[in-house]
Prior knowledge:
By secondary structure, the protein is α+β, with helices and mostly antiparallel strands.
Amino acid sequence: MKTFNIRFRSDEKLRDYIYEHQIIDSSDILIQVFSSQKKPDEIQKITTLLNELLPSACLVGTTTDGEVIEGRILTGNIVISISIFEHSSLKSTFLKPKEDSFVIGVDLAKEIVQEDTKALILFVSAEDIDASKILDGLKSVKQDIVISGGLCGDGGKFDGGCVFNCSQISHNGIVAVSLNGENLKASNRYTSEWEPVGRSFKITKSKNNRVFTVDKMTVYDLYEKYLGSEIATKLPLSGLQFPFVFKDLDSGTFIARSVRSNPGDGSLTFATKMNENQSVHIAFGNAEKMLQNTQNLIKDIAKNEPAETVYIYASGGRRRFLQSIAHAEIEPYKMLGTNAGYYGYGEFFANEKKSLFLNQSMTTLVLSESSKIIPKEIYFKTHYKKLDMNLEITKALTNIAKVSSQELQDLNQKLELRVKEEVQKSREKDSILIHNSKLAQMGEMMNMITHQWRQPLSAISAASTGLQVKIELDKYDEKLFLNSLEKIEEYVYHLSNTIDDFAGFFKPSKKKEDTTLEKLVDKALFILSSSFAKNSIEVTTHHNSKITLHTYTNEVIQVLINLLKNAENILIKRQIKEPKIEINCFEKEQKKYIEIIDNAGGIDVEIIDKIFESYFTTKDRDDSTGLGLYMSKFIIEDSCKGKLRVENVNQGAKFTIMLD
């Protein structure tokens, strides 16, 4: 395989070149024409001349936004690349677009793809095609085909480029050629490196290639708001330097989408379908990364590919973004061998592993009819001119930073307000939960009151019955009567105190009170004493703290009751033979501690980290709300600003309350 790349200057020079290099007409010759010239009559002159000189050759061509030849970038020129194959065949076609782009791809494949097709090159000039769907249609016919090429360019005018072959020129058509042969080696690669700037947006209204609104504002307004009016008024050209990007889920990289046309109604048209609800960012290129990745790509080709010819199909937006340093990306390709290509407005990239329609990228098609990899000396310049951003780009980047910063500030203010509202709601909810938690314990409390009252009521009943019998027997004894009445008064006083203690428990503490750890524990034990006695639970207390603390008394007592009641329940459930609860009160480093320790065997290690979560319970749902320990932790840590912890020790579990 041999390739000759020519910069067209005149008919005579082209004739001379073909004769001097002894290029003999054959059906196995591929001619690619990359033309900055858009006028059909001028293009026709060149294709007619080439058809005259090489009538059997397969010719495909496209207008450009820049041309590539032997490591150089040209603009305003015509580059002709002539590849002569020795063991491969070619088959080409010209199609008009159809409404269904997938069908276009299928029709292309049916016309020119063969069993031994290794690669396909296509150039497209059409407003309403979905380039991604064309690739899908092609791949549905032959999965392992290498597909390269791209959309036409028009020198950045966006007023209509064209594609052509030896007989037709069209502003709305597709030319394609298949490269076939068992000996043909074909591979392709791409590099992009466009990175998001600012926040993400969501496409809120689109139809096929046309996007109407993003975040419910027109796409034009979006560009104007974030990049400024200078960029917006120059759309679609300015959009080449600030494309949209979205994340490719397969590779994790960002794929660019540049504007193709501006209908003038606020919407913008792209080269492929843009889906509603898709998240996109405005992007800006990483020039240093672009050059570095190109170097890596060239090294990879030199090491792994028998490269006889390299075709480059790249984005005009990429060239315009890199400006004067774009040559640093193209120049190293001459170390691989002969190369040519063009800049357009979109790039096709597909192989056995991937199928992508790209914007703002550089793609390469590497061809060879030999399997021998010839070692090449690859080196790169260590210094190149830094990207010189013009005033317009600087203003655009400054504007997007300014607007994004303001949006972030507004968002933070809204979030702060939202957080305050949610905190207030949470506090109100937790207050209700605390109240509900108390109500859930009322049934148990009423049962405890019954136990507390049973003995004094029995004593009152016995005393009053005894007095009544004495009266009936007419055995009045003043001393006996006074003594009995005194006991009845003591019993009534005890009942009254019991009511006061239980009533106080259900009253929320409106303010902090002075108390001691001993008083808190004693009040909790008083309420639970009859239940502990009934279930033969031995309770021991150790008080090593007399210092007064200032806290919400009833809330802490509620927590103590809940922890002690939980200990009682687990001792009963596990049928511990000698059930015990130990309560320790002490001070350490100016903190006050209450420990509640049982001998019920401890808490399962798989759930010990979950027991303070809301609605978590190991009891039957009918017997528990799962709020007890959650609310206990909330009361101690949120209301009382203390700590509540649990751990397994020796024969059971230890809950520790720490208070300031």
